[in-house]
Amino acid sequence: MMKLDVRLDGFDAPIGHLSSDDKGAVSFAYESAYLEQNAPVALSLSLPLGTNPFDDFATRAFFDNLLQERDTARADIIARYRLANDDIAGILFHLGKDCAGAVSVLPEGAPATKMPGRLDRDYRAYSDQELADILEALYRRQPLPQELVDPSPLAGVQSKIAVTRLPDGRLAEPQNGAPTTHILKVPQERHERDAAREHVAMTLSAGFGFETAKTELLDVSGIPALLVERFDRRTQNGSVTRVHQEDFAQALGLPARLKYQRPERGANGFHAAAVRDILDRTTDPAGERLKFLSITLFDILIGNVDGHAKNFGLFHLPGGRLMTTPRYDVMPTMLDRRTTDEFAYFLGAATALDKLDGPALDQFMIDLGFASAAGRKRILGQALDRTIDALNAEITGLGRDDKDFGDLLGTNIRTLCQNLQREAPIPARDRDTFVR
Predict the structure, then answer these.
(1) Which domain holds residue 195?
(2) What pLDDT, on a 0 to 100 scale, did the predictor assign at position 1?
(3) For 293-338, how does the pLDDT look when each residue is reduced to its tens digit (9 = 90+)?
(4) Of 52, 330, 358, 387, which has the highest C-beta tally within 10 A?
(5) Are 425 and 283 contained in the same domain?
(6) Domain assignment of residue 436, yes or no
(7) Alpha-carbon gap, residue 207 to 195, rounded angstroms
């Protein structure tokens, strides 16, 4: 038997408890005192506020998603303490203080490890040499220097470390449980262009009108890196606080392994109808549906087919209000010829761009909740015109700096236009074909 405190940054006491029984089943229940507060916030759409405990299935899905996907930290804890791979409570007993967001899971009665930070006292600036050592280690896929501790292990293909940017521009490590403000992403040595490509994709996303996390390219001792401003932080009058959010996998009660839609999983995973269920519960369902449609078309054309359930998020706001988070992890993944071109979530029957036609797009819109046939036709036509025109205008400039990216964008526009029996515009029509 084990009982752990579940804390949410911004609340003085634990908001609930994670428990495991002698058979390894886990459950979660909110504290009655928390529910009686003026404005309690739900941990997740899959764990709504209430007095009844949640069973193993719902509890395990949410809390497993709090664990780092990066295998080394989890594997080290499992080996060191001889834990079972599915012992969520046991693993969180050791790793729960380092969950990346506003949630922490701690031994019962332990003091809080996360709290707001003051930029003038709760951060230590890295020296130039320390920063160079950090980037070198991440770039080479080597452990960080022993004296430098990663304050927030993060998932993903690229190596990352959470840092704070001080008002004078220096990067710093947090102390006293203070939040970080940025993520420093370093591509693999053999994929040096990934930082620049993600920066371009995120800039295109923001320029298109999507609220998108801010990025900045850095070069430290010849190593390229991308600095991403965290959208789940608020900095005001020198104070930094965490903002509670969850990804779509957590909101849907899905384990991380089901973050992609795949045919063999049927309805048990991430798909458009599940997205509709989330968007219908936001403060602006109609606007969120339109945005998700536009995001989907945008991502397909820039070659980002990695928009899985953990790359979309929800803010939980007081009063039970929900809104989607800014965009993050926008990357033209198709430029890596070793990756799949299969969509992270399918559009109707289409699992990849070469299969995406009018009926597939129409079914996708039905799945998202667009009821009217006439409305779907009009809305899709407007979205296609806007997306194709905007991205087509970027091809020439983009291609000067990165020919492959320009060719990929042109090829994707041509392919979609051909599938929809539309005339491809210039310059997309004349770009070299990007061959995977």
Answers:
(1) 117-236
(2) 81
(3) 999 999 999 999 999 999 999 999 888 899 999 999 999 999 998 8
(4) 330
(5) yes
(6) no
(7) 18
Rounded to 5°, the CA angle 121-125-131 comes to 160
Closest C-alpha to 220, from 140, 131, 144, 143: 131
Statement: the pTM of the whole predicted model exceeds 0.90: yes
Express each pLDDT in 90-120 by its tens digit.
999 999 998 888 999 999 999 999 999 999 9
Nearest-5° Cα angle at 404, 400 to 405: 75
The residue count for the chain: 436
Residue 372 in tokens: 């009217």
Residues near 36 by beta carbon (within 8 Å), at least 6 away in sequence: none
Sorting pLDDT into bands at 50, 70 and 90, what band is 155? very low
Residues 395 and 250 in one domain: yes
Kindly state the tokens that stand for 338: 């070793």
R_g (Cα) of the chain, nearest Å: 22
In a domain, 162, yes or no: yes
